Amino acid sequence: MVYALLCTGLFACSAFFAARATASVGPSRATLARILIATFVLGGWTLAAGCHLPSAAIGWLLLSGLVGMGLGDIAFFAGIPLVGGRLMTLLGQCLTAPIALGVELVWLGVWPDPSRAACVALILVGVALSLTAEPASADRPTPTRRRFWLGVTYGVIDALGTALGAVLTRRALACLPAGAPFDGGTTAWYRMVGGALVTIAVYRPVLVRWCALPRERGTFRAVRRRYRATVANALCGSVLGMAAMQAALTHVEAGVVLGVVATAPLGTMLLLWRFDGLRLSRRTVLGGCLAVAGVVALQWAGG
Prior knowledge:
- By secondary structure, the protein is mainly alpha-helical.
- The protein has one domain (2-300).
- The protein has helices at 2-25, 27-49, 55-83, 85-108, 114-131, 145-173, 184-202, 204-212, 220-249, 254-261, 264-276, 282-300.
- α1 packs antiparallel against α9 (220-249), α1 (2-25) packs across α11 (264-276) and α5 packs parallel to α10 (254-261).
- The longest helix is centred in the C-terminal third of the chain and has 30 residues, at 220-249.
């Protein structure tokens, strides 16, 4: 449970820095730089840890990254221009945990006790209440019926990919021999490699254009200032956050972990309130309180 909460806080910070990274260097550069930074940092982490995994576990982790970080992330970003980031976030956070619980039950025969399932449901109700509380904004386009349902489909694919990725990680961890050493950064690196392969293949034209551009003008200090939010985004989410999630999945069902992680957008909203003056409605605060109550109850229930 501690690792799940740590992952949630890191993902909240990652989303906070992601908005700044996108505004500073553009969405394409921010996305590609995040993937490359995380892959190299986690690669160094893996070499330093020296934790060797069975080939079966590596295969499942690579597939987990392909499905979760590759398919899921691509669907998420494809849906944002259609229905807006808020609705995509709502669909992803509120559908991922139930899908993961269902997949674990059907495939792995794992199901949390009713009390923990009820806590996860309370968390998701609170998250949904908070994310639907704010008024319409420029982030929310007004699509045609066809574009709306296409965006919703992308949201479902995003949730499905993320849920399957987490369950596949659980399957990979089951391949480790009893008492074998475990390192969250190592498992996160194999997932990152799988996701990076898909992401770079999809964004290859963008990457080629980026590499073909003349060297950025300005001093090293100026370039570093432009990309520091991107570095923070990568370190908080794709490196430390993902490593914490791998550690959480060794102890707790994927559906329960994803239920706790679903509160990450609430943490991001608190950061925006603190540093950017975001106004929080009473409904947002009420939803946040419900979600926090669900997390506390989950801890009491042995989550």
